[in-house]
Amino acid sequence: MSAIHLYQIYYNEQTRAQLDPGFIPLDNTDNLCPEWYEFWVIKNFLEQNDLADSAFYGFLSPKFGTKTGLAAEQLKALMAPHQADTDVFLVATAWSQLAYFQNPFEQGEFWHPGIFDLSQQVVDALGLDIRLDELVTCSHNFAFCNYIVARKPYWQAWKKLADAFFDLVETRRDALGEVLRGETSYVSRLAPMRAFVQERLPAIVLQQQRYRTCAIEDVAHFVIARNVFQPSGVYERATLQMCNLLKYRYYLNGNSEHLRSYRHIRQNVSLIR
Question: Which residues are bridge partners to 183 per DSSP?
Answer without folding.
Answer: 192
